[in-house]
Write a structure and sequence with these properties.
Layout: H1 2-45, H2 50-57, E1 59-63, E2 67-68, E3 75-81, E4 88-91, E5 106-109, E6 134-137, E7 142-148, E8 159-165, H3 168-171, E9 175-176, E10 179-183
Parallel strand pairs: 1-9, 2-10
Antiparallel strand pairs: 1-3, 3-7, 4-6, 5-8, 8-10
């Protein structure tokens, strides 16, 4: 009788574990589908939000030295201008205003068009961003930050490198030029 009870208990445990796993898998699949739906909804809804329209007023200019010796810092200056008559703000996440690379927010390519490997951290963030994640730009004013591309990207060989900003989905900064740097 003990043996049958033990066998039955083990069977129920396995059945419960399997059912639990199936439930977790189903919930995970449901969450993935829900997240995808939310992501696509957010992408559609984003252009009509007030924050996005405010950030689209801001204009960003990147600049870097034309030539740099291999192994020396490649300081990229990132300036956000507010040409409007009203104070504006943007999220500093995925910009040099974080003062270090927390994500790959630049696309850096060599002269062959091949992507340069990102070597920084990949931080996960809570959304929406907290109030202290925003930087205010005075009416008719600007703010600037510099960042060394070598701290985030594996730029080790001489050549010509193109840098394109890719963080607009988080920061809201959409009008950004691209720069080219020659590493000697």
């Amino acid at each position: 009788m003990k043996n049958q009870f033990f066998t039955m208990a083990v069977g129920l445990s396995i059945l419960s574990f399997t059912a639990c796993q199936q439930s977790q898998n189903a919930q995970s699949a449901h969450n993935d589908t829900t997240q995808q739906a939310q992501d696509s909804t957010a992408a559609v809804a984003e252009p009509v939000t007030a924050d996005t329209s405010a950030a689209s007023v801001l204009q960003t200019v990147m600049s870097a030295p034309e030539k740099v010796k291999a192994g020396k810092p490649i300081l990229l200056k990132f300036t956000v201008n507010n040409p409007s008559d009203k104070e504006q703000e943007f999220c500093k996440w995925h910009t040099p205003f974080e003062q270090r690379f927390m994500n790959s927010f630049f696309e850096v390519t060599d002269s062959k068009g091949e992507a340069v490997q990102y070597k920084g951290v990949m931080a996960k963030r809570v959304t929406p961003p907290p109030a202290d994640a925003y930087i205010k730009v005075a009416a008719k004013g600007n703010v600037s930050a510099e960042i060394d591309l070598l701290t985030g990207y594996n730029i080790t060989h001489p050549g010509t490198y193109k840098v394109v900003y890719q963080g607009e989905g988080v920061s809201g900064l959409t009008k950004v030029n691209e720069v080219t740097v020659v590493v000697e």
